[in-house]
Amino acid sequence: MPELPEVETIVRGLQKQIIGKKIVGIKVILPRIIRGEAEDFITLVLGTTIQKVWRRGKMIVVGLSTQRSILIHLKLTGQLVYISAELPITKHTHLILELSDGQQLRYLDVRQFGYLCLVDNSLVQELTPLGVEPLELSRDKFKALMQSRKALIKPFLLNQSFIAGIGNIYADEILHKAGIHPLQRTHTLGQMQIAKLYQAMQEVLRQAIEQKGSSIRDYVDSSGQQGDYQRYHQVYQRQGQPCLTCHEKIVRVKIGGRSSHFCPRCQEEERR
Known about the structure:
The chain is an alpha+beta fold. It folds into 2 domains: 4-127, MutM-like, N-terminal (N-terminal domain of MutM-like DNA repair proteins, Alpha-Beta Barrel); 134-262, Helicase, Ruva Protein, domain 3 (Orthogonal Bundle). 26% of the residues lie in helices and 24% in strands. It contains 7 helices and 11 strands. The protein has helices at 4-17, 38-45, 124-127, 139-147, 153-158, 168-178, 191-210; strands at residues 23-28, 34-35, 50-56, 59-64, 68-73, 78-84, 93-99, 103-109, 115-120, 251-255, 258-262. The chain has a 5-stranded mixed beta sheet with strand order 2-9-5-4-3, with helices on one face. The protein has a 4-stranded antiparallel beta sheet with strand order 1-7-8-6, with helices on one face. Helix 1 runs parallel beside helix 7 and helix 6 (168-178) crosses helix 7 (191-210).
């Protein structure tokens, strides 16, 4: 699933490509990817102008000139691509917004788990009840959040009601950079560990955004280009390979039903 760096990359691309453009045509090829009636979506979106594009957690929000916004969740395999109207419509294209500059914004989704939803602007915050944005979170607030829980650190980082936007890839990479075992409990982390974890979170997410995200399977940016951050992964999906820091073999375990990758030497579990 695209995580914060991937969604942020898409949003930054769209901010340059579609803001100020008018939606002059809509083709709904697969109506069920729209939450609500497809006909109502078309009626209310057609003729509006795109005024704002922003991210909330892993969700894309497209603000329109009618005090309404389109919420877009890419889920596992969704793609949102700004593309020439002259190019062929490829398989798994489910919705097309025709723009006033002659280009199109196409939504594609192989697994069809993603969705679009049109809502009043007043409901955007209510419909995205997520935790704090990690790149807007202060060190002190992060420390307080850590110390207020007694949870395993890996599931904690994945819990969107605490911190929004971090998924499996970046939780593994953040914990490795901080030297923290994924089974460590939040309330057992020392001051230095919390400081390292906060710094690792900031650095990993920002570097991933700079590299336009990780393309593991389906992810591409708004121009259809793959990201490069997968080349910098230290542990994610590297089980059995030597750690790039100490050469110990990376291992994979299941934690809370999710695969976790870590180095048993660099991320030795501390018991308290």
